[in-house]
């Protein structure tokens, strides 16, 4: 019953006109009024960022705030994989032989998530990590590895929530929501970086057009809280032994290690 009520409420509020209205508001000068309350409610530590909260002129500017230079150290070991975002690791584990992943008790099809059966098969028996960004998190996305982008595509037009309730009760948001996918060749194989849009402000903006990526280099930003899914080929990745789900991480922290097939 809880699941049905949740889904009905989301369907009633998940409308394009409402998303557009909220997007317009967050980019308007009047939205500055609620910035102090937003920072207080979400307990955002502004000491990490370029400017104090009162110097941002819109809520959107606060959402996409940049870190101060030198705030984060990027691990330089060529075999490590870093978190591409500030987030909570909500789920991680092996990709099924059927190319499904299990997140919050629900099975997600990689074929549906990636929009292509051939792409999905490449990650069979590999490893996945789901990183959830709440509205309080730093919203910029960085490269988790040194590598080269070999393909990039977009799918979906929905904007269901991707928080814990959304993952548990939603209608497959990781495979239905708007998402932008980058495949990257790295030292020991290939990985997919799946950037999933969230409810209301369903936007992912690229800030880096280069195909050659350096670990820790900025790639894009979310306009609101959202989710990143990392997919690794079979026998190319080991998650760091210190991580147990749920696990908070910051961009630049080591989350795993590349291994040879």
Can you describe what's shown?
The chain is α+β, with helices and mostly antiparallel strands. It is 21% helix and 31% strand. It is built from eight helices and 16 strands. The protein has helices at 2-13, 16-26, 35-41, 59-63, 110-114, 117-121, 164-169, 173-176; strands at residues 80-82, 87-94, 100-103, 106-109, 127-133, 140-142, 147-155, 179-186, 189-196, 204-206, 212-213, 218-222, 226-232, 237-239, 247-249, 254-258. The strands form four sheets. An eight-stranded antiparallel beta sheet has the order 11-7-8-9-13-5-2-15. Strands 1-16-14 form a three-stranded antiparallel beta sheet, with no helix packed on it. Strand 3 and strand 4 (106-109) form a beta hairpin. It is globular and about 50 Å long.
List the helices and strands and how they pair.
Elements: H1 2-13, H2 16-26, H3 35-41, H4 59-63, E1 80-82, E2 87-94, E3 100-103, E4 106-109, H5 110-114, H6 117-121, E5 127-133, E6 140-142, E7 147-155, H7 164-169, H8 173-176, E8 179-186, E9 189-196, E10 204-206, E11 212-213, E12 218-222, E13 226-232, E14 237-239, E15 247-249, E16 254-258
Can I get a quick summary?
With 261 residues, the chain is an alpha+beta fold. 21% of the residues lie in helices and 31% in strands. It has eight helices and 16 strands.
Note the main attributes of this structure.
single chain, 261 residues, alpha+beta, 31% strand
Distance between the termini: 46 Å
Please tally the helical runs, counting DSSP H or I stretches of 4 or more residues: 8
- Look at the structure and give the mean pLDDT: 85
Extract low-pLDDT stretches.
1-13, 165-170
Write the H/E string, N to C. HHHHEEEEHHEEEHHEEEEEEEEE
Largest sheet geometry: 8 strands, antiparallel
How many strand elements? 16
- Amount of helix: 10-25%
Overall SS class: alpha+beta
Q: Please give the order of strands in the largest beta sheet.
A: 11-7-8-9-13-5-2-15
Q: Roughly how many Å is the radius of gyration?
A: 18 Å
Give the DSSP E fraction (strand runs of 2 or more residues): 25-35%
Name the shape in a single word: globular
């Amino acid at each position: 019953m809880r699941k049905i009520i949740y889904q009905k409420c989301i369907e009633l509020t998940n409308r394009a006109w409402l998303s557009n209205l909220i997007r317009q508001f967050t980019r308007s000068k009047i939205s500055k009024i609620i910035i102090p309350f937003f920072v207080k409610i979400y307990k955002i530590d502004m000491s990490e960022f370029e400017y104090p909260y009162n110097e941002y002129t819109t809520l959107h500017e606060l959402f996409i705030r940049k870190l101060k230079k030198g705030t984060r150290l990027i691990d330089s070991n060529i075999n490590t994989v870093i978190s591409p975002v500030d987030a909570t690791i909500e789920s991680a584990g092996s990709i099924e032989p059927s190319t499904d992943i299990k997140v919050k008790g629900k099975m997600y099809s990689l074929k549906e998530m990636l929009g292509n059966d051939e792409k999905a098969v490449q990650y069979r028996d590999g490893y996945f990590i789901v990183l959830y960004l709440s509205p309080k998190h730093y919203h910029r996305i960085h490269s988790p590895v040194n590598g080269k982008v070999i393909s990039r595509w977009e799918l979906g037009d929905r904007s269901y929530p991707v928080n814990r309730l959304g993952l548990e009760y939603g209608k497959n948001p990781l495979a239905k929501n708007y998402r932008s996918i980058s495949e990257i060749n790295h030292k020991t194989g290939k990985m997919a970086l799946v950037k999933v849009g969230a409810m209301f402000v369903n936007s992912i903006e690229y800030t880096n057009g280069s195909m050659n990526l350096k670990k820790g280099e900025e790639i894009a930003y979310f306009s609101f809280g959202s989710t990143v899914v990392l997919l690794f080929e079979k026998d190319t990745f080991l998650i760091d032994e210190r991580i147990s789900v749920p696990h908070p991480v910051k961009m630049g922290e080591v989350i795993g290690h590349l291994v040879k097939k």
